[in-house]
Automatic annotation (TrEMBL), chain A:
InterPro entries the record matches: ACMSD, Amidohydro-rel, Metal_Hydrolase
Descriptive protein name: Hydrolase
Keyword Hydrolase recorded: yes
Biological source species: Thalassobacillus devorans
Domain Amidohydrolase-related: start-end pairs: 63-348
Assigned keywords, A-Z: Hydrolase, Lyase
Phylogenetic lineage: Bacteria, Bacillati, Bacillota, Bacilli, Bacillales
Any GO MF annotation of the entry: hydrolase activity
Record flagged with keyword Lyase: yes
UniProtKB/TrEMBL annotation, chain B:
CDD domains: Rieske
Entry protein name: Rieske domain-containing protein
SUPFAM superfamilies to which the protein is assigned, alphabetical: ISP domain (SSF50022)
PANTHER family: 3-PHENYLPROPIONATE_CINNAMIC ACID DIOXYGENASE FERREDOXIN SUBUNIT, FERREDOXIN-RELATED
Coiled coil (UniProt feature): none
Rieske domain span: 4-117
Keyword terms: 2Fe-2S, Iron, Iron-sulfur, Metal-binding
Stored InterPro entries: Rieske_2Fe-2S (IPR017941), Rieske_2Fe-2S_sf (IPR036922)
Organism for this UniProt entry: Thalassobacillus devorans
Length: 364, 119
């Protein structure tokens, strides 16, 4: 029996591909570049993640030695069944991260398609609870739109994933991508890959970089806001994944104050930025700072709404948040919103009613 | 349950740790490099991670200066498998970053080849 007594919609689960697993979804010549030329995604960080097992929970490594997040059965045992998830949204390990590639966009486009096919066949169609994210190579905008058209109507794809890295996504060049997403009832999910949080470079220590990730998320919200994405696409929503949430009141107040003074520059904004955030931007909770209930409720009050936060575990990464322990003990109604209802209200393609346990199948 | 044999001394080599049961309680039995045994609750006080899935290791110390690491206490520190929080085995299971917090511990004695945990 699942342990948790209220339904959980987990908005950030990292499934992981091993390159050998996507070969069958790649055409030549791309397959050759991985098989024979040992292509791997470019990485920039000078550090490892200095926990016990790098980026992963040490106990999430698959018992046969494969990397954490690479095996559905083990994920079911350790996460979905153990906690009793109603819904989990896959956000990938951002490796490959096609939109983060700084060249060779043909390869990025091929990888995005291969990843989507692998994700659909091996995860979305194997577990009723899992929903997915469409990967695109956004630098090749027209190919990205084609990919959204190709897989965006899959009933279990709920968002288009964009990495937070070194592209500001509010730029009008990318707006046709948002148009395509909106057309398919897909939201935009943004998750940091390796954003250069330190003036385009790297701070000396991982702890500095990791502390400053929220600043990269704030930049993207600000870019999307003042470039008018939310007014241009009123049915589009933005889920900011794994960047924290305690900065939200600051950003709302700051953008509102700037808007009152400088609206002249961005006349396409028809609503107050804080209002737009309340209506169209959501945040996953992990990694939650350790707040008391009083501190947490004060934050909610400052946001002016309790509908922006959506619970996430970040499984199987080292800074996983336990649904039992990560947040203070909230009142039942608020708990219900944060753990499930807010995400269901945000993603148009998620089922709204809770499935009974006996209706759940471990595979379709 | 007042006391219980949780394992044999030969089950845990110096510098290793192992999960065991003390009644219904999951305990983490640690053996430091000097051969001594210690036992703690096998659950991180932060978010409840199973500590036996973490590692027993050393730690960078407060003697480190910016730009230069001092690393010692090998085999005397437990690191949580999730968030990497560090607990000193020889200092009552206290968290290195916040010594006012500690993992609940149990008393341990060795009789012949038996490791006995008691309250």
């Amino acid at each position: 029996m699942p342990k948790y007594q209220i339904p959980i919609v987990d908005t950030d689960i990292h499934e992981r591909v091993q390159y050998k697993d996507i070969l069958e979804y790649l055409d030549e010549p791309y397959k050759h570049y991985i098989t024979n030329c040992h292509w791997i995604q470019e990485k920039h960080m000078p550090y490892t993640q200095p926990a016990v097992a790098g980026v992963d929970r040490a106990d999430a490594i698959v018992p046969d030695g494969r990397p954490a997040g690479s095996d559905l059965k083990f994920m079911q045992e350790q996460l979905l069944d153990d906690i009793g998830h109603e819904i989990g949204i896959l956000t990938s390990a951002l490796d490959p991260s096609p939109s983060s590639m700084h060249g060779w966009h043909e390869m990025a486009v091929a990888l995005a398609s291969a990843y989507n096919d692998w994700q659909i066949e091996n995860w979305l169609e194997k577990d009723e609870r899992l929903y997915g994210s469409v990967h695109i190579a956004a630098q090749d905008r027209d190919a990205a739109i084609k990919e959204i058209e190709r897989v965006g109507s899959h009933p279990k794809m709920v968002q288009v994933l964009l990495p937070i890295d070194d592209i500001m996504w509010g730029d009008p060049f990318y707006h046709p991508i948002f148009e395509a997403a909106e057309k398919h009832n897909l939201m935009i999910g943004m998750h940091h890959n390796e954003p250069p949080v330190y003036y385009g470079k790297w701070p000396r220590y991982f702890i500095e970089w990791h502390t400053l990730i929220p600043t990269a998320h704030m930049k993207q919200i600000t870019s999307m806001m003042f470039n008018g994405v939310f007014d241009k696409f009123p049915n589009l929503g933005l889920m900011m994944i794994e960047g924290g949430f305690t900065f939200i009141p600051h950003l709302m107040w700051k953008m509102d104050q700037q808007y009152r003074d400088l609206r002249h520059e961005v006349p396409w904004l028809k609503r107050k930025p804080s209002q737009i955030m309340k209506e169209q931007v959501r945040f996953t909770t992990q990694p939650a700072e350790e707040l008391t209930k009083k501190e947490f409720m004060s934050l909610i009050e400052q946001m002016g709404t309790d509908e922006m936060l959506c619970f996430s575990t970040d499984y199987p990464h080292w800074d996983y948040d336990s649904p039992y322990r990560a947040l203070p003990n909230l009142d039942a109604e608020l708990k219900q919103k944060i753990f499930a209802e807010n995400a269901k209200a945000f993603y148009p393609k998620l089922p709204k009613k809770r499935r009974a346990n006996n209706e759940r199948a471990s595979s379709l | 349950m007042k006391e219980q044999v949780v394992c044999k001394t030969s089950d845990i080599q110096p510098g290793e740790m192992k999960e065991a049961s003390f009644g219904r309680q999951g305990v983490l039995v640690c053996r430091t490099p000097d051969g001594e045994f210690y036992a703690f609750m096998n659950q991180c006080i932060h978010q409840g991670a199973p500590l036996d899935k973490g590692m027993i290791c050393g730690a960078t110390t407060d003697k480190s200066k910016p730009g230069s690491y001092d690393y010692c206490h090998e085999g005397e520190v437990i690191r949580c498998p999730w968030h990497g929080r560090e607990f000193s085995i020889k200092n009552e299971g206290r968290m290195l970053a916040n010594p006012s917090k500690k993992i609940p511990s149990f008393k341990v004695r060795v009789e012949d080849e038996s490791v006995i945990v008691y309250k």
